[in-house]
Write a structure and sequence with these properties.
- It is built from 18 helices and no strands.
- The protein is about 70% helix and about 0% strand.
- By secondary structure, the protein is mostly helical.
- The chain starts with a helix and ends in a 24-residue tail after the last helix.
């Protein structure tokens, strides 16, 4: 260190340090709150409120929705808007059902799906209409011949604007719902739903304008412009916009599967997917300009093969998720958390459905007391829990139930049995969901994409599994054997075949611990994360 720097330090006034002996004296001299000169700055506290975020997002989407509906109605007219709305809504359920089917292994929450669809239908559509109109007018007045402005805007400007607006929804969920965005399937589903919403609003505009043109010309029926527009947009190519944006979703899905240290790859892959989506969109919009048959050539030679390739990739990714269950869950089965048959059943969609149906049927039958009669042989009034022998609930002691009372009692017992069955099926479905999340978490840890809270998240998932194990494990074991995954010489008896006594306060997890008991005692063998916690040690005293 130079002499100048030493002299500069010596010339500065010394700052007295707070000594431990003076803490009491200093704290006693602090003025009252109303006389404070300094107050804590709550940076970002408003945005951290979940209620504020929900209200803000809902408000923005609502404003965009009102604005886009007003614009579309202004361009199409009231009658054209209603006709376009009625026709544009027809392909939407099919598209949403297809994407939800693709996401059956580890379905994302509905709030993400609704947000993605609303963003595409309102926010992205509004940005696209405003930006495309401005760009087309700008091109017509400054750069190109006015006659070619629409063509240049459709092939150059529209793909960039529309795909960027739709990709914003995928980016937001990727950033703020990162735990629910794990791979290619999640990217495909979010991108496809967003594009479906965008196509819905765009179809209202095109079909409404076509109907207005038919009204001016006097066409109607099959030869009308409306029918031709509906056939091209809703029958031949309902997957066009979803197919473009799915390329962006695949890029985000690949980035989600990369390790956190691969920052360049996590940035380049989404951008590459976006560029491919823009290029494919541009080719599709410009296909009609190439030649009279350019649209059909691009449709047959390019669009259909790419659609088949993307569909195969999405289905392959879903099967890969199922293989992840079969590869990651046996470690928990060896540790005693699962039975050996459960990983096989959880890796088969057919076995999963059979397990839910079996639990629903068997718990409902056991609640009735017999497979064939609502109450079982030898049933007498008062055999239901919480009732007095010989007395039907709601009747006076010693009274003989009439036909109407017996019918009401039978109906009540049937409804109670159905409630038991639905609760058991719901418990199995939740068990399957938590097991899928557990396998995905373990795979993320293997890839290095999980955060530092891996142990806490793993313990929480194991806790949820143990809560539902008594109901779900027998059903999954039976399903694995009944579907031929184990190829047994003979099938075992159905689970829950023993006599079942319905609880007076039936919980969602059958005979397992109540919610309060389950949260009061951890399911693991140790004290929890830290202190030598090892989830793969066989639990010696499982919670009951």
């Amino acid at each position: 260190m130079s002499d100048g720097s030493v002299q500069q330090r010596l010339s500065q006034p010394a700052v007295p340090l707070l000594k431990e002996q003076r803490v009491g004296e200093i704290l006693a001299a602090v003025p009252e709150r109303k006389h404070w000169r300094y107050r804590p700055r709550r940076v970002g506290m408003v945005w951290r409120s979940r209620t504020f975020r929900v209200v803000a997002v809902f408000t923005v989407l609502a404003i965009c929705g009102l604005a886009i509906l007003a614009l579309v109605r202004d361009q199409t007219g009231t009658q054209g808007f209603l006709v376009g709305l009625g026709l544009a809504v027809l392909p939407v359920p099919l598209l949403l059902a297809a994407f939800r089917w693709l996401d059956r292994v580890d379905p994302g929450p509905w709030r993400n799906v609704l947000f993605a669809f609303a963003w595409g239908a309102f926010a992205a559509a509004l940005v696209a209409i405003l930006a495309n109109s401005f760009a087309t007018r700008w091109i017509a007045t400054t750069i190109a011949d006015p006659s070619n402005a629409d063509t240049l805007g459709a092939t150059v400007i529209a793909p960039v604007v529309e795909e960027s607006a739709k990709a914003a929804a995928v980016l937001l969920i990727f950033l703020f719902r990162r735990r629910e965005f794990n791979g290619i399937v999640d990217g495909v589903v979010i991108a496809g739903v967003t594009a479906s919403g965008f196509a819905f609003t765009e179809n209202i505009l095109y079909l409404g304008n076509a109907f207005g043109e038919d009204q001016q010309i006097g066409n109607s029926g099959v030869v009308s412009v409306t029918a031709a527009t509906f056939f091209v947009r809703a029958v031949m190519s309902p997957f066009a916009h979803p197919l473009f944006t799915v390329l962006t979703g695949i890029g985000f899905g690949l980035a989600a599967a990369c390790a956190r240290r691969r920052r360049i790859r996590r940035t380049v892959l989404p951008l590459l997917g976006l560029v491919l989506a823009m290029g494919m969109h541009s080719l599709w919009n410009g296909s009609g300009v190439l030649s009279p048959y350019g649209f059909y050539a691009v449709y047959a030679v390019f669009m259909v093969p790419v659609f088949g390739l993307v569909t195969w990739l999405a289905i392959w990714s879903r099967r890969r998720e199922l293989r992840t269950l079969a590869a990651e869950l046996p470690a928990y089965a060896a540790a005693g958390w699962l039975s050996p048959e459960e990983p096989l059943a959880l890796s088969s969609m057919r076995a999963r459905g059979l397990a839910r149906d079996t639990a629903r049927r068997q718990y409902a039958v056991a609640a009735r007391g017999s497979r064939y009669t609502p109450y079982g042989p030898g049933w007498a009034p008062g055999s239901m829990p919480g009732s007095t022998p010989g007395v039907i609930p709601g009747s006076l002691p010693g009274a003989v139930p009439g036909p109407s009372a017996q019918a009401a009692q039978t109906k009540a017992a049937t409804q109670a049995a159905e409630a038991h069955g639905k609760a058991a099926a719901r418990a199995v479905a939740e068990y399957e969901s938590f097991a899928t999340s557990l396998a995905a978490l373990r795979l993320q840890a293997r890839r290095g994409t999980t955060g530092p809270d891996f142990a806490e998240r793993e313990l929480e998932l194991l806790h949820h599994l143990w809560q539902r194990r008594e109901v779900a494990a027998p059903a999954l074991t039976y399903a694995a054997q009944a579907t031929g995954l184990l190829r047994p010489h003979r099938l075992p008896p159905l689970p829950y075949a023993q006599q079942f006594t319905p609880h007076t306060q039936y919980g969602a997890y059958g005979n397992g611990p109540t919610q309060a008991q389950a949260h009061a005692q951890p399911p693991g063998p140790g004290p929890g994360p830290g202190a030598g916690y090892n989830p793969y040690l066989r639990p010696q005293q499982p919670p009951r």
